[in-house]
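Reviewers of the previous submission asked for a worked example of the structure-prediction workflow described in the proposal, so we include one complete record here. The input consisted solely of the amino acid sequence. No template or homolog information was supplied to the procedure at any stage.
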Amino acid sequence: MASTAAGKQRIPKVAKVKNKAPAEVQITAEQLLREAKERELELLPPPPKQKITDEEELNDYKLKKRKGFEDNIRKNRTVISNWIKYAQWEESLKEIQRARSIYERALDVDHRNITLWLKYAEMEMKSRQVNHARNIWDRAITILPRVNQFWYKYTYMEEMLGNVAGCRQAFERWMEWEPDEQAWHSYINFELRYKENWIKYARFEEKHGYIAHSRKVYERAVEFFGEEHVDENLFVAFAKFEETQKEFERVRVIYKYALDRIPKHQAQELFKYYTMFEKKFGDRRGIEDVIVSKRRFQYEEEVKANPHNYDAWFDYLRLVENDADPDTVREVYERAIANMPPIQEKRHWKRYIYLWINYALYEELEVKDPDRTRQVYQACLDLIPHKKFTFAKIWLLYAQFEIRQKNLQGARKVMGTAIGKCPKNKLLKGYIELELQLREFDRCRKLYEKYLEFSPENCTTWIKFAELETILGDMERARGIFELAIGQPRLDMPEVLWKSYIDFEIEQEEFGNTRNLYKRLLQRTQHVKVWISYAKFELSIDGPDRLQRCRQIFEEANKSMRNCEEKEERLMLLESWRDFEKEFGSESTMERVRKLLPEKVKKRRKLTAEDGSDAGWEEYYDYIFPEDAANQPNLKLLAMAKMWKRQQIVNEEVAPENAPEAEEGTSSSSSTSPPPSTSDEPAAPPQNDSDRNAAPEAEQENDDDRDDDDSSSSSSESDDEDDGKKKKKEEEEEKPSGEEDKD
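From that input alone, the workflow returned the following structure tokens.
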């Protein structure tokens, strides 16, 4: 009983529902699902991201993923999406061979699945496996020929690859299945893009022996497309047809006709076949024609791209001048000169004007047509805006052409027109040279007069005019021209003019006139080279007093240049004088000149920037002339200061114990020399009036420098009369040393 009681299971009592009425708020299954979605009760957290660090982990990852894909496929082989995901995953790992194997296994399961074929072919095309892709498309259209999508993809791929023949073959296979109207339109549009219907028609006629009909088809095709829609394949096929019929002249005409009408970048195959034809059936001239034609196409493309590229026009014209007839050359020249520069500025016209020059020279020298040459020159001169600028070269070439035609009056008329419209130095020089060659000296004189009225400051013209009169033997006229020239208020190169005048007088051995010229020139300028040239002139004249005259000129030059600011020029004069005395003078004269040579000292001066701020100091070399030092007492003070400094150094080194006595011995001279604490170096002498208020200091042996302002009150000279100068010197000598070094 106990076991029986224990084996019995006690069933709980179910509570009875007393109120079986429907609840006020009804809950549906959709509401339960929505609430579960909102609360995300069934969502699992995403798996953690796994970072693969070595090859072993990668292999484990691949094995795990492949096992998962294979399990899914094993569970349900008919779900094609599992196969596609598996293949795409292998493709992402660049495992193309594995992906290809998966697609093949999938096709064994369902070979009529369109998506599977499309994904398979797209994978092969992405991997650039063209032949594999062709194989897949071929299998697809064989198994499922009524799926138009396969045909469209297949033909599009072949056309993108440039395999026109393969694309046409695919279309032909498609048309055998009699597809819908859109497929036929695609085929027609393809043939229109490649314009080969006429070629197929002509080949059909040729295949069946209708040669005349085939030729008419080609001719109709050329007329049908016209010059705007020409295609090189049509002309190549036409030329090959005529080549098989042994009509070589017709082939050559076809190629040339096509090359004249097809742009260069679209005629590469045409040039290739034309060259091959000429190598097989043509001569050397024919091969050269091919090369010339190719170059002509290149130049045509260049000038079409930029009509103002005059260098390309020059190359093009040079090419056609060697091989083409005059009419063709004229046509190219006319096209070239029609491209005028867009701006009326001379720099834009410089290259363009040579087109006209070459055109005129071609008509004169090659075609030998003087009338047309004259027309070219006239048209060019009418085109140039002479009020803004002109080209003397054109006028001179036109005049020289008229002279070659023995039309002297016409040449003078041309040059007269040029001078009247736009007088230029080059035009006037050219006209004068022309008349000189014709030995028309009276006309040359008139032209020189016109030239000098136009440009009186041109020294070269004055010199040339005087040389002409010298050659003609009229010395007085030449001298008068020189006198007029040096009397002009403005000259571009006066030194050249004066030199030419002096040389002219020397050649005429008019030494008195030469001396007068030098004196007149020295009244205008005191340049050192004029003095040196004057001295050399006196030295070159044979005479007993030539050395005395030369020495006297050096003396005058030295006196004249004492107030010169350019000390280098004064030094140059003294060096030239020294060389003269070394060669012709005595020891006494040599010593005298040597005493006049300056001392070279280093100085410092203050620099100021453009904005007025202090820019530091710079060192420079200055020259102190003994003549200037003798007239300035502060230079004597400088010498005494140097002696005092040296004596002090010697006393300190030799007898340091006698230093007090040395200081007492030197105290007697302290009234005339500056104390060492004030400055180690007095100021250098000022060289002119502007330097007398602030003279820079000279560098001593111990390299002690002193500022320019330290010697601002060291000396003060005036330009009064001799009595005032003498009184000033006495006052300065009586000044104590403290005033000398006030700073």
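Residues 313 and 336 are 6 Å apart (CA to CA). We consider this example representative of the routine output the project will generate in years two and three.
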